[in-house]
Amino acid sequence: MFFTSDNASGAAPQIMAALQAANAGYARSYGADALMDRVRAQLREVFEAPEAAVYLVATGTIANSLCLALGCPPWGAVFCHEHAHVAEDECGAPEFYTHGAKLALVAGDHGKMTPETLRKALGAVGASGVHGVQRGMLTVTNVTEAGTVYTPAEVAALVAEAKAHGLPCHLDGARFANALVATGASAAEMTWKAGIDMVSFGGTKNGCLGVEAVVIFDPAKAWEFELRRKRGGHLFSKHRFLSAQMAAYLEDGLWLRLAAHANAMAARLATGLASVPGATLRHPVQANILFPEWPAGLSARAEAAGAAFYPFPAPPGREAARLVTSWSTSEADVDGFLAALNG
Ligand SMILES: Cc1ncc(COP(=O)(O)O)c(C=O)c1O
User: Fold this and answer.
1) Average pLDDT over residues 168-178
2) Which of 13, 243, 245, 253 could, after both became Cys, cross-link 36 (CB 3.0–4.6 A)?
3) In ligand 1, which atom is closest to the CA atom of 144?
4) Could you read off the pLDDT of 114-160 as tens digits, one per residue?
5) How far is Cα 310 from Cα 205, in angstroms, rounded to an integer?
6) Which atom of ligand 1 is nearest to the CA of 172?
7) Based on the domain organization, do 262 and 204 belong to the same domain?
8) CA of residue 61 to ligand 1 center, whole Å
9) Pairwise CA distance, residues 335 & 330, whole Å
10) Last residue of a domain, which of 252, 282, 310?
11) 4 occurs within a structural domain
12) Residue 318's domain spans which residues?
């Protein structure tokens, strides 16, 4: 009953087996390993983008930060949702790696910007000429921090606002697989067909040990990315261990199966919560993150039964939580948690 985060889960057995296999013998270092050739081919196929540049890093924060550095000048503003991970949970890394770009926070219910809120934010930047930052870039998170999901059409509508100002567009896909499973969209539809220029493609939260891919659809940006990654200290020497994880993750659709399971467990939780007296949900449950609220006292009851989750501020007499399911959440975890809440 461990619902604090999807990265509280271990790595899937297929990933651990691939790491063990990759440990045998010798392999070229710094991304020149044969497994990386495989990953590049796999991701180009997944994204239907034969020319795409593909790189691996170990955290979502560096994937995002390097992408933003690639797309936004130091005097630019990166438009993102007001509760985006880049704004609230990366300790200034985006500002650091962009050499000081500003984050322009965009409002929107349930973790989602709308074309209107983005247009307003875009209109508020750049008006004071040389005295203010300039419009720099858009970054969209899917799955959002509220656990909601943008459809490809919604992504395209946001991108259209940004492209009207000539801005590059990034997608933070720390939970990209969960978003695809939720919408039924293809990777291409969710990204370059909607105008996205570069993607942070998550692996860690969905069953890897520690690997994220960066997919850049304009290969002319590849060399600059490589230099930024090395200069930022994120080019792994024993790179084969990143490659092995990602290759296994993409093999035979494992990544989508793991995400489908996580989403199904969240749906099971949401269904069960509907019959917990007084329980409500703050945001629609569309992927693998839930924000329930319930009468005061229920959190302690669940914790006493062994459940772990993050509490959130709630009005008097109420309690709120964030619950995240993962590839390894079991039906028994979900049902045991619901039984505890129901007393
Ligand atoms: C939306 C989002 N982006 C990126 C990340 C990547 O973070 P980390 O640097 O911890 O891998 C996370 C992790 O919580 C996330 O939720």
Assistant:
1) 98
2) 243
3) 1
4) 999 999 999 999 888 999 999 999 999 999 999 999 999 999 999 99
5) 17
6) 3
7) no
8) 6
9) 9
10) 252
11) no
12) 255-342
